[in-house]
Design goal:
Layout: H1 4-15, H2 19-26, H3 30-37, H4 45-55, H5 59-72, H6 76-86, H7 90-96, H8 99-113, H9 117-137
Length: 138
């Protein structure tokens, strides 16, 4: 899996923008973008969405950046939540996924399978809490 830094740099270069221009277009500070490009930190889910919207990223690129950023933060809960969000109904989703998306999902599922039972239990608990929180927001 490519690093968030590599993916973000590629997206910025493809757009022909500077970090400053991305900052203006996304509403994210130039300092944060610089730290992400340098690999000092990784963007959270909200920032990934803003970056990808501003850069006109494809669905595959957004998924890859989102997953890569979660992995870079060593945040297995976010990785599993990302799997859950993207593949809540695997039978339906699997048909709609393109080649690159299937590869990302496959990597995520491998990560899930290599998690310990305790880690999986914690992840499932986090998913349950997230679902309850979402229902309360509606």
């Amino acid at each position: 899996m490519r690093s968030p830094s590599t993916i973000l740099t590629m997206l910025i270069d493809n757009k022909g923008w500077s970090q400053l221009e991305l900052s203006r277009q996304s509403g994210i500070s130039r300092q944060n973008i610089g730290n992400w490009v340098l690999g000092k930190s990784a963007p959270g889910a909200d920032s990934v969405a803003k970056l990808c919207d501003a850069l006109g990223a494809t669905r595959e690129e957004e998924i890859e950046l989102s997953v890569s950023a979660a992995a870079a933060r060593s945040d297995r809960e976010n990785i599993w939540l990302e799997i859950n969000k993207r593949c809540a109904e695997p039978a339906k989703t699997e048909v709609a996924l393109t080649g690159p998306e299937k590869a990302v999902v496959k990597k995520l599922l491998t990560l899930w399978r290599t998690s310990t039972g305790q880690q999986q239990a914690e992840i499932l608990l986090a998913i349950e809490k997230e679902e309850v929180w979402r229902k309360k927001r509606k």
